[in-house]
Automatic annotation (TrEMBL), chain A:
Superkingdom field: Bacteria
Keyword Membrane: yes
Keywords in alphabetical order: Membrane, Transmembrane, Transmembrane helix
Spans traversing the lipid bilayer: 45-62, 68-89
Protein name: DUF58 domain-containing protein
Organism: Ramlibacter agri
Keyword Transmembrane: yes
Taxon lineage: Bacteria, Pseudomonadati, Pseudomonadota, Betaproteobacteria, Burkholderiales
TrEMBL record, chain B:
Transmembrane feature ranges: 20-50, 62-80, 111-129, 135-157, 169-187, 564-585
UniProt KW keywords: Membrane, Transmembrane, Transmembrane helix
Organism: Ramlibacter agri
PANTHER family (UniProt xref): PROTEIN-GLUTAMINE GAMMA-GLUTAMYLTRANSFERASE (PTHR42736)
Keyword Glycoprotein: no
Domain Transglutaminase-like: 418-489
Lineage: Bacteria, Pseudomonadati, Pseudomonadota, Betaproteobacteria, Burkholderiales
Pfam families reported in the protein's UniProt record: TgpA_N (PF11992), Transglut_core (PF01841)
Transmembrane helix listed as a keyword: yes
Record's protein name: DUF3488 domain-containing transglutaminase family protein
Length: 325, 669
């Protein structure tokens, strides 16, 4: 806990923000109306107000009718600017596209479609993830007249699991920068965050003898699971590891003996003696590695077992299981 | 030209934006060139050019020390020029330099703000010097330019064209104009909050409160407008157009001054049985619009009995028939007056008070006094009128010349005029005349003011310029009182009769224009000045009194500025209510079909059936029948018809009917 979190004012402010955000509806399509678009003057806006005051006093003191005209025309333009600023967001429709699964710790992108039914361009709309780090995280865009555009914002999920998409915010200061018009939007969509794969995982565990199969000694001797061998004439095409073949000119076949005798099991219990998250992250790395090798693999987690298999769907299933366990 | 455009298009966006802003700043500063010390103009221009070069070449901006150095140099130079760092002129110099120097700090687009605010002050300072129509037009362009720069700075995406930003800015200004008009008309005009700044009026010429030889000749070169007159009925003939200003009777040999107040106070009060001022004939009525001159004098045609009329104007007549307002004329002042060309003024009989008007300073103009003795000897026992006629004869026949450039006069101005130079401007003539007449023992004084005027054919206003400034004499005759005698008319009859002005030498351009079409320049000028007059009458002359007049027309009994505030507030409230009503109406317009569906969803949610926002009525109907069974058949049917109304409309299927039915549906609870 640092000083900022202990500060009663910021505590109250944070509480208020939480309470206020909790009131917002959860929806993937958000149409901005009078009710959910907010407007406040910016610092330059206050400066403009001060400027107007000084201009007015100057005009009064020097009895400059032209000074009055200048002051009032500027004030009128600023007033119109306020309206234009509010109208830039008002009536805009935001639509979140179903977010893709992500690995924890990597930047995830959310695609938001901004649709504009109006007959004029909406300028300079910024979109960002709310409460992100304080760096410049805005993505700016113009939405064409009677059209739409897609904006991507990034966020970095820290933990694995099923997360709600973080609240998003859109804002604009167009045209004069004297007002900030913004909205806060809580999308209903959820994003599944896979565990972050271990950076330098140990080699894949040795295969286990298939139930009812024969000896397990060979694989253990090398310590590495080698399920491939050079192509021999007569190997059925099914056994050719095409992925590897594509990389080198040599054809490689799955070692049918191996495949028949051993099964690769990625086991929670056998993932080293670290903490739970460490093991899960190692398992995730192994899943990716095995998939890359185009290997059949199964996953054993406490209370869950996924039978060996391969392919994209299998990989996703395993990663989901890892994310949610 | 094309080459330049290509080069501009090739510049990076930041450089282009900076160049645009520099051009706008240059435009804002342009009207100031005449008002600034020469070094300030050079410095500002140099800095702007330097910044522009850096932008084009993409070089880094100079360091902080450059700025500090330039700023310090500016402060020093300002001090040397104005001997102060405060006040109007020094302030204007400083703000111009600050604005120019700020551009050297213009790193990001957000700095446009500081430049923006500084530019507005600079624009206001332009009005200290001139509120004319061209300056107003230039500042309107400047305002649009600044708004364009600001809008452009808030379009961070890509490289928007400046024309696009300009269009947005133009629209904003156009829509803001009604607000401006409303505030301009109704915003209460206060008196200056802490007194009119003493420097508000410097640089505006006009008659002065004393007459040193040479004053009026200087004015004759000034072509600016002193006032405008609109006659009700026919204008009087040119030779009667004497607009009376300050009257001078106290001469110290160098300078003419009004009689000191203590002497004027001894003036006997006006007696009822023999009024000081008697008038006859029909009065001339006119409306006079005076340019501000920071003097209290209200110019009237001789002689006005009633004080000039303007709302809020308090005027009193001085002992010498001059109308004086209770405060200086600091903004455009319009008043109506009534003058009688036939009048008598002053004591009928020789009175003690008149001795003041016969005094001459000792030791000055000995030859003139000698001349007076000669004239008296030539006309023994003659009365004042004959003597004055003799003096006028001498002026007419003595080879005297009327000129703008009589050269420097020395110690004894009257002597030099009568005997040596024999030429002069109206002030020399009048001064020498009065000295001679006084030497003859006749009371006389100098009146300054304006003589003549020119009709503008476009709007029929008469324009009287500073160059129409004139000085003449008044002589007291026994039994007639003060009588106007214009010695200049004896020297140069054209000056007052057909009205010829002495023209300063003309420029090459004017000569060239004359050879093309002699009348073109004159008529263009007339149209231009008529336009200016309209500007003055409608915009610059919009004062508190006219504001209150407006309220009176609107039905306020005795309007005050509080009433103005109430009216302004009421209009703002009405506008706000109208805005709220529009918002409400807009929400009503917000797809009635969707709103009806929303209401149905809400009722179902209350019954425990949650449906998402993007679930179609048909799906809702399915959900309803699945959940509530046969009871909800009518409801499901209604939902289906709702869908059909939107997507497969049958003739006669109205939303209104569906809405009515909505009330009677058997909603599940």
């Amino acid at each position: 806990m640092d000083a900022a979190t202990l500060n009663p004012l910021s505590l109250v402010r944070r509480r208020f923000r939480q309470w206020w955000q909790a009131r917002l509806p959860l929806t993937d399509t958000y149409t901005l109306t009078q009710r959910n678009v907010y407007i406040l003057p910016t610092r330059p806006g206050w400066m403009l107000a001060l400027t107007l005051l000084v201009l007015l006093v100057g005009s009064i003191n020097y009895q400059l009718n032209l000074g009055y005209l200048l002051t009032f025309l500027l004030a009128g333009s600023a007033l119109v600017g306020m309206h234009v600023c509010h109208a830039t967001l008002r009536g805009l429709t935001l639509n979140l596209q179903t977010p893709a699964q992500q690995f924890a710790g990597t930047a995830a992108t959310l695609s938001v479609v901004l649709s504009n039914a109006r007959k004029s361009v909406r300028h300079s709309i910024g979109l960002a993830v709310l409460d992100a780090t304080h760096e410049d995280h805005w993505t700016w865009t113009d939405v064409p007249a009677e059209g739409s555009c897609t904006v991507q914002v990034a966020f970095r999920p820290e933990k694995r699991g099923l997360h709600r998409v973080p609240p998003l915010t859109a804002e604009t200061r167009f045209p004069l920068g004297t007002f900030r018009v913004w909205t806060v939007w809580r999308p209903a969509a959820q994003v599944l965050v896979y565990p972050a794969p271990e950076l330098h995982p140990p080699p894949l565990p040795p295969g286990e003898p298939r139930a009812g199969g024969a000896a397990a000694a060979r694989a253990q001797s090398t310590g590495e699971f080698e399920g491939v061998r050079a192509y021999r004439r007569g190997d059925p095409l099914k056994l050719v590891v095409w992925k590897k073949a594509a990389k080198s000119d040599e054809l490689v076949s799955r070692d049918t003996m191996q495949a028949q005798r051993y099964e690769l099991w990625l086991d929670f219990a056998g993932a080293g003696h670290q903490d739970r998250e460490g093991r899960i992250s190692r398992l995730a790395a192994w899943v990716l590695q095995a998939d890359k090798l185009d290997q059949d693999y199964g996953l054993r987690l406490p209370g869950l077992q996924i039978k060996p298999g391969s392919g994209e769907a299998h990989k996703r299933r395993c990663l989901e299981a890892l994310a949610l366990c | 030209m094309l080459n330049l455009r290509l080069r501009l298009a090739a510049l990076p966006r930041d450089a282009r934006d900076t160049l645009f802003l520099l051009v706008v700043i240059g435009w804002v500063l342009l009207p100031h060139i005449g008002n600034l010390p020469w070094w300030c103009t050079l410095l500002a221009a140099g800095v702007l050019l330097w910044r522009g070069t850096l932008a084009v070449q993409g070089k880094p901006l100079p360091g902080k020390w450059w700025l500090f150095g330039l700023l310090a140099a500016t402060l020093g130079a300002t001090w040397l020029t104005h001997r102060t760092l405060l006040g109007r002129d020094a302030g204007v110099t400083l703000i111009v330099v600050l604005l120019a120097l700020k551009t050297l700090e213009l790193r990001a687009r957000r700095d446009a703000f500081v430049v923006f605010f500084l530019s507005f002050f600079t624009m206001l300072t332009n009005f200290f010097f001139s509120q004319s129509l061209p300056v107003a037009a230039a500042m309107l362009v400047a305002l649009l330019g600044l708004l364009t720069a600001l809008v452009n700075a808030h379009m961070p995406v890509g490289r928007p064209s400046l024309a696009e930003a300009a269009r947005t800015a133009g629209w904003m200004a156009l829509l803001g104009a009604p607000v401006m008009a409303l505030l301009f008309v109704l915003f209460p005009r206060f008196a200056p909050l802490w007194g009119i700044p003493s420097d508000a009026m410097t640089g505006r010429s006009g008659l002065s409160s004393q007459m040193q030889i040479g004053n009026v000749a200087q004015l004759a070169l000034d072509d600016s407008i002193a006032f405008r007159v609109k006659w009700q009925g026919n204008p009087p003939p040119q030779d009667q157009l004497y607009f009376r200003g300050p009257v001078f009777a106290d001469f110290d040999g160098r300078e003419w001054r009004p009689l000191a107040p203590r002497l004027a106070a001894r003036f006997p009060p006006i007696r009822i049985e023999e009024p000081m001022l008697q008038v006859a004939g029909t009065p001339i009525r006119y409306e006079l619009t005076m340019e501000p001159n920071n003097r209290p004098w209200l110019l009237t045609l001789d002689a006005a009995v009633q004080p000039p009329q303007a709302p809020g104007l308090v005027a009193a007549m001085s002992g010498d028939l001059q109308w004086v307002a209770s405060r200086p004329v600091v903004d455009l002042l319009r008043y109506t007056a009534e003058s009688y060309p036939q009048f008598r003024y002053g004591p009928r009989r020789r009175a003690a008070v008149l001795t003041e008007y016969r005094q001459l300073p000792a030791g000055f103009n000995p030859r003139t006094i000698e001349l007076a003795g000669e004239i008296q000897r030539e006309h023994p026992g003659a009365d004042s009128a004959v003597l004055v006629d003799a003096v006028m004869d001498r002026l007419r026949t003595g080879g005297y010349r009327y000129t703008l450039e009589p050269g420097q006069y020395g110690q004894d101005t009257a002597d030099e005029f009568w005997f040596d130079k024999k030429e002069g401007f109206c002030e020399h003539i009048a001064s020498s005349f009065v000295v001679l007449v006084r030497a003859l023992g006749i009371p006389a004084r100098i009146v300054t003011g304006y003589q003549g005027g020119q009709r503008n054919n476009v709007d029929n206003y008469w324009i009287v310029r500073q160059s129409d400034a004139h000085a003449w004499a008044e002589v007291w005759f026994d039994g007639r009182g003060w009588t106007r005698v214009d010695p200049t008319s004896a020297v140069a009859p054209g000056r007052t009769g057909t009205f010829e002005r002495l023209l300063p030498p003309r420029g090459v351009f004017a000569n060239a224009m004359d050879t093309v079409s002699p009348n073109l320049v004159a008529s263009m000028r007339a149209a231009w000045e008529a336009m200016n007059n309209g500007w003055n009458q409608w915009i610059l002359n919009y004062t508190q009194s006219r504001q209150l007049n407006l309220l009176r027309n609107l039905g306020f009994e005795s309007p005050s500025w509080e009433d103005l505030s109430y009216l302004l507030l009421a209009i703002i409230v009405v506008a706000a209510l109208a805005g709220a009503a529009w918002t409400w109406w807009d929400r009503l317009q917000h797809d009635p079909w969707l709103r009806l569906l929303g209401r149905a969803r809400k009722r179902l949610r209350a019954a425990g059936l949650e449906t998402g926002h993007n679930v179609a009525p048909r799906q809702i109907a399915n959900l309803v029948t699945a959940r509530f069974g046969e009871d909800a058949r009518r409801l499901a049917d209604w939902l289906l018809r709702l869908e059909a109304q939107r997507y497969a409309r049958q003739p006669g299927a109205s939303l209104q009917a569906l809405r009515r039915e909505f009330q009677q549906l058997p909603w599940p609870t």
